[in-house]
Amino acid sequence: MALDLTSGARTGSTGRPAPGAHTLRHRRRRERLRTIGFLSPWLVGFTVFFGYPLVATVYFSFMHYNQIKQPEFVGLRNWSYVFTQMPLFGPALWNTVWLVVVMVALRVVFGIGVGLLVTKLKSGVGFFRTAFYVPYLAPPVAATVAFVFLLNPATGPVNEVLGAIGLDGPNWFNDPDWSKPSLVMLSLWGIGDLMVIFMAALLDVPKEQYEAAELDGAGPLARFRYVTWPNITPIVMFAVVTGVVQTMQYYTQALVAGKLASGVTIGPGTVIQPGYPDHSTITVPQLVYQLGFQNFNTGAACVLSLVLFAIAMAVTMLLMRRRSGLLSAED
Amino acid sequence: MTTPTSPAADAVAPVRPARAGSAAGPSAPLPAAARRARRNRVLHWIAVHSVAVALALAFVLPFVFAFLTSVMSDGQAMSGELWPASWHWENYSKVFHTPGFLDWWRNSLMYAVVGTVFTVCSSVPVAYALAKFRFRGRRTAMLLVISTMMLPPQVVVVPMYLVWAQQFHLSGTLWPLIIPMAFGDAYSIFLLRQFLLTIPKEYMESARIDGCGELRTLLRVIVPMAKPGIAAVALFQFFYCWNDYFGPQIYAAQNPGAWTLSYGLESFKSAHSVDWNLTMAATLLIMAPVILVFFFAQKAFVEGVTLTGVKG
Q1: Does residue B225 contact residue B204 with C-beta atoms inside 8 Å?
Q2: ipTM of the predicted structure?
Q3: N or C: which end of chain A has fewer CB within 10 A?
Q4: Where, subcellularly, is it found (chain A) (predicted)?
Q5: How far, in Å, CA of A128 to CA of A199, rounded?
Q6: B24 touches chain A (CB under 8 A)
Q7: Could you say which of A78, A99, A128 is where a domain stops?
Q8: How is domain B99-310 classified at the architecture level of CATH?
Q9: DSSP, res A73
C-alpha cells in the first residue's frame, strides 16, 4: 500500500486526533524520514551532479564563455553556429549515427550468434565461453592500442597473415573507408557482455516449445523464427537500446585509434585535429571535448551536450515504454 | 525419435531424421534411420565445434600476437615477423622502469578501490529503499535513476568541470571523479535494486519483528543475503574506474602525476612510437589485473552481466 499522506493530514485537521490516529501519523512521519534518510546519498548526488550541471548546460548554451572572462549572453548564436557553421558537426553526427546503426546491429546479431553457438556446444563449454568473454574485459584503451598494432597496414600481424595467403589487406585504421569498420571489428571482439546475456536468454526458452515445434516438423530455421525469436525479443530489445545509448557515448576507442594511427608522437592533451583519417573517426562526444576543453568554446560545447542529451532521453523513453517490466518487477 | 536430454543437446537435436522417417513410411528399416540419425549428430557435433574453435582462435589470437611482440627485440618488433627470434623478458621490467608507470598504477588502484568502496556504500541503502520501501514518488525516483544511467557522461561534463576547477581547484587530481561516487551511482543502484527485489519480504519482516531497526535490518540481514549482487556491482565499478579514459582525460590531463594506467598508456605509445614491443608489454600489463580479477570472481561477474539484461 502506498504511503497515504493526505488522509493523515485530514485526520489531523478535524480537531483532536484519536490516540490511534496519532501513533499512525507518527509512524508515517517516521517512515517518510526513514525513506529520505536511505535515499539521501542519491538525492544529494542527483541534485548536485546531475540537476545542477544540466541547468548550467542550458544556461551556458546561450552564453559566450571562454572560461576566463565573464559569460556574456549571446542568444541563439551558439545554436546557429553549431548547426550551420561548425565544420566538424556534420562529420561527427554522421559518424555517430553510422556507428550507432552498424555497430549496434552487428553486435546484436553477432551476440545472438555466439550465444547460440555456445549453447549448442557439448564439450569444452567452459573453455569457449571464457575465450569469447575475456576480450570484453580488456580496458578499451589497451584493446584499441592492441588493435592499432594488429591492424597496422605495413607490419601488423593481420596483414602479414593475409599477405601470406595471397590477400592484399586494407589500410584499416589509416583508410577513411576502413577506419569505422575496423572500430566495428574491435567492438565485435568485445562481444562478451552480449554473449552472456543472450546465452542466459536462450537457455531460458522452454524446452517443451522446441519439442512441440519438432513434432510439427519445424526445421532449424523455423524453430528459430517461431520458438527462439519470440522468447528472446525482450532481451534483443534491451540489447539494442543499451547498445544505442552506449554507442552514442562512443569516445575512447575512436579517439585513441585515430590518434595512434595518425602516428602523431606527442603526448595526450596536445591539440590535434581529431578524427584521423579525414574526420572519419570523430564522434559527437569527441567534439564536445574538443569544443569545451581545447577550444574553450563553452557555449557551443553545451549546445552539443544538449543535442546528445535530447537523443539519449528519447532512446530512454523508448526503453521505458517497451520494457515497463524494468520498473514494476515487484508489483 | 529419441533425443538426448541434456539441456544443450535439446536445441541441437536434428529433426531431419524424424521427418525423413515419417516421409518414408513405416516400411523404412529402423536401424538405418537410427544410424543416419547418429551420423547426423556426429556431423553436427563436428560442425559446431569447428566453428567454435575457429572463432575462439580469432578471439585469442590478438592476445597471442600482442604477447609475442612484447618479448621481441626492438629491431624485430618493427618488422612484420610474428615469432620472436629471441625472447626479451626484460621488456617488461623496462616498462616498469618507465618514469611515471608506477605512479599510474598507484593512481589507477586508488581511483578503482576508493571509487568502488564509495559507490557500494552509498548505493546499497538507496537501492534497498527503492526495492523495499513503499513511498510516494518511488516510480518517479526509479525513472530518474534509469535516466541518469542512460545519460552520456559528456552531457554534464562542461559545467561540472568548471565547478571542480574554479570553485574547488581540484583539476589535476582524480578527486572530481571519486567524490561523486560517494553519492550513489545510478547503474549500481539499478543493478542492486534488481537483485534486492529477489529477496523475499519475509526476511525483512521477521527481522523487524525481532526488533531490528531499518539500518540493522539492512546491515545484518539484507547485506549478507545480497553478497552476490554487491560483489557483481563492486566488480563492475572497479572495472569501470580501471578502464575510464574520459574522466582522467578531463580532470587529470594537465598533471602527469595524477594519470591512471588507462590514460597514461596512450602517452606511453606516443613516446615510444616505434617500440611496439614495449607498448605491447605495457598493454598486457594493463589488461592483466582485470583479467586476473575476472578469473577469481568469474561467477559473480557472469551473474552481474545476466542481471543487467534478464531480470524484469
Answers
A1: no
A2: 0.84
A3: N
A4: Cell membrane
A5: 13
A6: no
A7: A78
A8: Orthogonal Bundle (1.10)
A9: E
